[in-house]
From TrEMBL:
Residues 329-339 have a biased composition (Basic residues). This is Ribosomal L1 domain-containing protein 1. It comes from Amanita thiersii Skay4041. Residues 275-339 are annotated as: Disordered. Its main location: nucleus. Keywords: Acetylation, Coiled coil, Isopeptide bond, Nucleus, Phosphoprotein, Ubl conjugation. Residues 307-328 have a biased composition (Basic and acidic residues).
């Protein structure tokens, strides 16, 4: 039997091949059945690589990380590419023409984002019409507020590019032919194979495109082999922080391709976790109970507070409040004077 090839010294290539072939075959049949009842062909379903990590990252990053793939995710011939630039946008349109760049479908300046695309409906249409967004790296900090949350929910954050490069065409081609990892808070990372995302789980750590269902299983496998080492490289602590890997589509079950050992050895599930850590976690979980128990004890040991009640009104008074003892006598004098 031939020796099984290992990806990045951890993941079995044979196991990946089995999972991708089974997933591709099952989802392709479902897609064919759906298209029989549809007038227009639907977009290819998403394929995900779920990467579950052991420890949650401390922060989230807006700027996506570039990940190489063999077979590009976005084809500018079928998926429009939009470039967001500084003002004036006409200057950058002329720059694209100068470098004979014809795969950019639309150029949008910051002023146009604030004006023409200010309304929610206009921004939603811009998001829907384009498969990929590139942006001048100098305007990236302005975009979260201008674009809104929908861009980040759809994982279509603009990819930063350097428009000052001498070989601008190569810079833009490299940006389009790569995929990207968006680091978010959570313990699960999703790797996607299409450019249209519908739903996410609450533990989403990141989403990285590695292909489409329209790709062949061999092409998906090539993209996985190329992207996985780079993905692990950008995860804090690398393989020591990875718990398991799965592949799936939006509606399918997750198919495992790798999982860490459930022991305390190096890269194991409980590696580095000591009895003191477990005791600290237990003490932390009982903190609320201890505080709740201490409150009744404090009530027992503290002396009871006396309360004075004014006759006729039923108002409670603390010991610090002074009661006017002459008040009933004054009332009686007024009554005698009135009679």
């Amino acid at each position: 039997m031939a020796k099984d090839e290992i990806i990045d010294n951890h993941v079995s290539l044979h196991q990946c091949k089995l999972a991708i072939n089974a997933l591709h075959s099952h989802e392709s049949k479902k897609q064919e059945r759906r298209e029989e009842n549809e007038l227009l062909p639907a977009e290819a379903p998403l394929v995900w690589l779920n990467v579950t990590v052991k420890r949650m990252p401390n922060d989230s990053k807006i700027k996506p990380i570039r990940i190489p793939v063999v077979h590009p995710i976005v084809d500018p011939r079928t998926s429009p590419v939009c470039l967001i630039t500084k003002d004036p946008q006409r200057e950058y349109k002329d720059l694209l023409e100068k470098h004979n760049i014809k795969f950019i479908s639309r150029v949008v300046g910051i002023a146009k984002l604030k004006g023409k695309f200010r309304s929610f409906e206009a921004r939603r249409m811009l998001l829907k019409e384009n498969g990929l967004f590139l942006a001048d790296d100098r305007v990236i900090p302005l975009l979260p507020k201008l674009l809104g949350a929908k861009w980040f929910e759809a994982k279509k954050q603009p990819v930063p590019v350097n428009l000052a490069r001498k070989d601008l065409k190569k810079e833009l081609e490299r940006a389009i032919s790569s995929t990207y990892m968006n680091q978010n808070r959570g313990t699960c990372m999703y790797v996607i194979t299409n450019y249209c995302i519908t739903t996410y789980e609450s533990l989403s750590y990141s989403a990285i495109k590695i292909g489409r269902l329209s790709h062949s299983p061999a092409q998906l496998l090539d993209n996985l082999k190329e992207a996985l080492p780079a993905i692990i490289h950008y995860i804090k602590d690398g393989w020591e922080n990875v718990q398991n890997l799965h592949v799936k589509t939006n509606s399918s079950m997750s198919l495992p391709i790798w999982t860490c050992s459930l022991d305390d050895e190096k890269e194991g599930r409980w590696a580095g976790l000591t009895m003191d850590d477990e005791q600290d976690e237990a003490d932390g979980s009982n903190g609320v109970e201890d505080s709740e128990k201490s409150e009744p004890e404090a009530m027992v040991t503290s002396p009871p507070k006396t309360v004075e009640i004014e006759s006729g009104k039923g108002k409670k008074r603390s010991p610090d409040q002074k009661v006017d003892e002459d008040k009933p006598k004054k009332r009686a004098k007024k009554l005698r004077a009135a009679t």
